[in-house]
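Re: beginner question about structure tokens

> Can someone show what the tokenized structure looks like for a real chain? I only ever see the sequence side.

Sure, here's an example I had lying around. Input first:
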Amino acid sequence: QLQLVESGGGLVQPGGSLRLSCATSGRGLHDYGVGWFRQAPGKEREPLACISSSGASTNYADSVKGRFTISRDNAKNMMYLQMNSLKPEDTAVYYCRATMRANYWGQGTQVTVSS
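And the corresponding structure tokens:
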């Protein structure tokens, strides 16, 4: 069983940056595909970015392409989401997910982009 805990959320002004982290435990992360999602109030949870188990392949939603970067450190069992040029519409709860035959989710971290 894999456990995930996000951190790094907070309040940031438009145009600012945040780096989200997702610490995993319970099993080695290297076998899992991982990704970041977000859910804004009244909206469905949407996928933002994913990265392959080796880190060689990434994919991004159009809404964050060029602004967000997903990465992982299998040796540390960590994954990250670097978010730049943040916009008010990026305000949401952000979740990390790991997948290997099943999906494992973190509890989420709030990101608020506001002046």
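Each token stands for a local structural state, so reading them left to right follows the chain. The CA atoms of residues 13 and 114 lie 5 Å apart.
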